[in-house]
Structure formats: structure tokens, C-alpha cells
Design a protein that fits this description.
The protein contains 9 helices and no strands. With 260 residues, it is mainly α. The protein has one domain: CDP-alcohol phosphotransferase transmembrane (TM) domain (Four Helix Bundle (Hemerythrin (Met), subunit A), Up-down Bundle). Helix 1 packs antiparallel against helix 2 and helix 6 packs parallel to helix 9. It starts with 17 loop residues before the first helix and ends in a 5-residue tail after the last helix.
Length: 260
């Protein structure tokens, strides 16, 4: 999702103002197909502002990716080490929301600069993977330290961790396999598609943005953990449905290697 370290904007290397950068980003958004509600209606628009600002500052997408990871991990460390209070919850939610918006900004900045790099995409996915895993570990730690729960409930963040990682890996892998297939057979990328309002709502449990916002409830531990558990169960159900579709998609690549 990140770009090379040199400026290669579609319109050349000329300097553009914040407004022009922002408008160019509005016209160069990736497909909304499959995007959950928070990502589509909140995170991308906020990320667009950050991307335009980063462009004015001469930042590279990889730098934005690194800042995104640093901000996110500050929130995760606070979650694991600080008491489970309302102020901690607000701090964690703010850090995770800001980090997520910057995570969107790096890809948008890459498109503004003319494209991404393999190294940038690797860096982005590595940070995302570490962030997803460590967040659920931090929930486990804070639940053990602060929540008055039977110990069996501590399996919930462990289960959520497994579901989140499998979902992330499966989503990335099926996308990469599709890219390889198209490259091998000279096929064009599929056209941009939109996602229905119903689909964006159904994907709410898998939306990292909603998970990030849920930490504002940390000061009421049982309420937070109830919401967290529901998001985990919803993510597990969606993963079961998505895994079946992904498998059929990969079978289709084997059965029709010369077709889109």
C-alpha cells in the first residue's frame, strides 16, 4: 500500500496545494467493494485529509506507515499497562483511531504519488499483522489484571486473536493469488465495484475501526468485554462465510486459468 521513495505523481512533479492534492485523492479512491462501514464512511475520508497533508510536507508513504504503527502501538501498550479507566479507554481509542486513519493515508498518499512499492506493501502488511495480534494480547492482559471475570472468559481474546489473524491472512492471500493469476495470463484488474449498504453493515464485526472505538467503554469493563465478545463472535461467523467464498474463488482460478 505504500509507495516508492521518489515523487512520481500522475500529473508530474509539479508542486500542488493541499486542496488540489485532496481533490486528486477524491478522484483516485480504491474500490469500495467489501469495505465495512467505518472504513468506508469514516476512515478513508479522514485518511484522505492526512494523505493530502503528508503530501504537502513531502513525506513518503513508508514514513506515514511507520508513524501509523508507532501511534497504534502507543495505544496498545497503554491498554496493557494502565488501569482500566475511562481515561485509559479514551486514550487507547484515540491512538487506535488515529493510527488506523494514518494506515489509510499511506495507501492514498502512494496513489497520489503515482503508485506503491513492493517493499512498502510488505512493511504495511507486517505492521498490520503485528498490530492485530498485539491488540488482542493487550486485551487479554488488561482483562486478567483488571476485570472481575471467571478465567474461562480469558479464552475470548485468544479466540479473537486467532480469528483476526486467519481473516487477515486469508484476505491478503486470496488477493495476492488473484494478482499473480492475472499477471501470468495477461488479464486486466477487475473493474471497481461498489458495496451495498447491507454488506457494509454485515461486516461491522470485522471492522478494525469499530473495534478501536469500542475501547471508549473500557471504564465499564463488563460492558466493554460484552461488546468485545460480540465483535469476536461476529468476526468468527463472517470468517466462516468468507473462507468458503475464498476457496471457491481460488478453485475458479485453477479451473479457468485464461479467464478473468
Amino acid at each position: 500500500m505504500s509507495a516508492t521513495e521518489t515523487e512520481t505523481s500522475p500529473a508530474g512533479n509539479e508542486a500542488v496545494g493541499f486542496g488540489a492534492s485532496y481533490q486528486r485523492l477524491r478522484a483516485a479512491q480504491k474500490s469500495s467493494k467489501g469495505a465495512p462501514a467505518y472504513s468506508l464512511y469514516v476512515n478513508r475520508p479522514v485518511g484522505r485529509v492526512f494523505a493530502a497533508a503528508a503530501h504537502q510536507l513531502g513525506m513518503t508513504p513508508n514514513q506515514v506507515t511507520a508513524i501509523s504503527g508507532a501511534v497504534s502501538f502507543v495505544g496498545i501498550i497503554c491498554l496493557a499497562l494502565l488501569p482500566a479507566t475511562w481515561w485509559t479507554g479514551l486514550l487507547v481509542a484515540l491512538a487506535l483511531v488515529l493510527g488506523y486513519a494514518l494506515d489509510s493515508a499511506d495507501g492514498q498518499l502512494a496513489r497520489l504519488r503515482g503508485g506503491g512499492s513492493v517493499a512498502g506493501e510488505w512493511l504495511d502488511h507486517m505492521i498490520d499483522s503485528a498490530k492485530i495480534s498485539s491488540l488482542h494480547v493487550a486485551v487479554l492482559i488488561t482483562a486478567y489484571r483488571n476485570f472481575d471475570l471467571p478465567q474461562g472468559w480469558l479464552l475470548v481474546p485468544l479466540g479473537f486473536l486467532v480469528v483476526s489473524n486467519v481473516f487477515f491472512f486469508g484476505f491478503i492471500l486470496v488477493d495476492q493469488l488473484g494478482r499473480i493469476h492475472r499477471a501470468q495470463h495477461g488479464l486486466a484488474a477487475p473493474p471497481k465495484a461498489t458495496s451495498s449498504a447491507l454488506r457494509t453493515l454485515v461486516k461491522i464485526p470485522t471492522d478494525y475501526g469499530f473495534l478501536a472505538v469500542s475501547f471508549v467503554l473500557l471504564g465499564a469493563p463488563l460492558v466493554f468485554f460484552g461488546v468485545y465478545t460480540l465483535l469476536g463472535l461476529g468476526s468468527a461467523g463472517y470468517l466462516a462465510l468468507a473462507a468458503g467464498k475464498w476457496y471457491h474463488d481460488t478453485v475458479a482460478l485453477d479451473d479457468a486459468p485464461g479467464k478473468a
